[in-house]
Design goal:
348 residues; alpha/beta; six-stranded mixed beta sheet; 6 strands
Length: 348
Amino acid sequence: MTSLADIQFKRIFGDVKTLIEQAKTDVAIQVNATMSMLYWQVGKRINDDVLKNKRAQYGKQIVVALSDSLTEEYGTGWSEKQLRHCIRFAEVFPEEEIVSTLWRQFSWSHIKELIYIEDSLKRSFYMEMCKIEKWSVRTFRERINSMLYERTSISKQPEEVIRQELQLVGETGKITPDLVFKDPYFLDFLGLKDVYSEKELESAIIAELQRFISELGIDFAFLARQKRIMIDNRDYYIDLLFYHRKLKSLVVIDLKIGEFEAAYKGQMELYLNYLNRYEREEGENSPIGLILCAGKNPEHIELMHLKDSNIKVSEYLTILPKKELLLDRFHRAIEIAQHQFLEREGRK
């Protein structure tokens, strides 16, 4: 039997442990803030001197000389590579006010990933998504390497629309489906061969459910496989049912091994309308459908106005081509989508 003294000791120990852990966290945050600001100041000081001289060769010489002298004075931590990180940091974020906000939200390791993203809109996208989803450095790096930005719907909008939506996300912390759903989805981890059935595709996803959810996004929660619904005494089965916490919506995923066909829209509308009527909880938003196909047939999708609906159509890739080919494909898709957007706006 536990004595009163033992209970009191455990309570005191727990409280003291919490105080120590909180203090350690506070110290780590303060150290990160101080060091990040120091790195920015070092980079700014070097930039100011190099810019005054306007000579590339001088810049290389000063970085090498500084690295040697600082290493001799303070030991490791001031390599030439580190100084170039500092310089890049000050170039990308020249305003001290912005830097003061950055170190409150990101570690120096996060910042080093951010500063080498050339496109400012893409950089803003990763900053906002990292804040919302609280990515570790490893996850952050994986998201960049998997070309997450290029695969989201928002990247296919005109620049001003992207800028406004990211600003809204930064101010409210709320995200839209354009920031959540991707095209294509990378399913190479399923290990599927060239020929497979829809059932085999579904079984492979269930077997690798954790990695599939990682590809979908961290706010997806798995609810059911082959969920049975009855309409007019007929049974229908939803392939995969998820819930997205931040969108506050049920998400139906319909798996297809071929290209998109017009009939898939009607099938998905039936599922969504059923869930909206019978299973949508108070406070939730309307259900969203994601049709995953081996091919999209873009004209079908445009003529059926799916981009303006709660039904998303995306391709999935079980075998990934080279990154250069993917990037070229994504850039062409973005250009086409932005052109179509402007055409639609012009017709209004």
